Amino acid sequence: MASHDQSYTAGETKERTQEKMENTMDDVKGRAEDAKEKARESKDSTGSYLRDKTDAAKQKTSDTTEAAKQKASDTTQAAKEKAEAGKEKTGSLLQQTGEKVRSVARGTADAVKSTFGMATDEDDKPTSGRD
User: Fold this and answer.
1) Separation between Cα atoms, residue 23 and residue 109, nearest integer Å
2) What is the per-residue pLDDT across 21-48, written as a single tens digit (0 to 9) for each?
3) How do residues 98-115 score in pLDDT, each as one tens digit?
4) N or C, which end of the chain is more exposed by having fewer CB within 10 Å?
5) How far is CA 70 from CA 13, 64, 66, in A?
């Protein structure tokens, strides 16, 4: 009978050991699934963080580029306006200089004609109206 009791006890021990092993395996599987899920969440969180940072960097770059374009446009416009004003001033100055040269030339021609007696009645009239 001893061998029968020993067989029975060995069988019970084997069942308990198998049960404990299954419980341990289930526990390990559960922990592995939890770790896997946590890793997935961490990955998603990291990806989201990096995506947000990348988007922020893109936006900042875009804003900086737009500001540079606007500044260049403003500078170009100011230079264009200054050049136009300079052109108008130069044109006016040249016109005034031309009129002065013409007036001096007329006066000189009238003086030479008068000196050599070549002046006509029309040349003897004051030249202030011709200027």
Assistant:
1) 127
2) 999 999 989 898 998 888 888 877 777 8
3) 899 999 999 999 888 888
4) N
5) 84, 10, 6
Q: What is the CA radius of gyration of the chain?
A: 53
**22 vs 12: CA distance, rounded Å:** 15
What DSSP string describes the chain? -HHHHHHHHHHHHHHHHHHHHHHHHHHHHHHHHHHHHHHHHHHHHHHHHHHHHHHHHHHHHHHHHHHHHHHHHHHHHHHHHHHHHHHHHHHHHHHHHHHHHHHHHHHHHHHHHHHTT---HHHHS-STTT-
For residue 66 the two structure tokens come to 């737009």
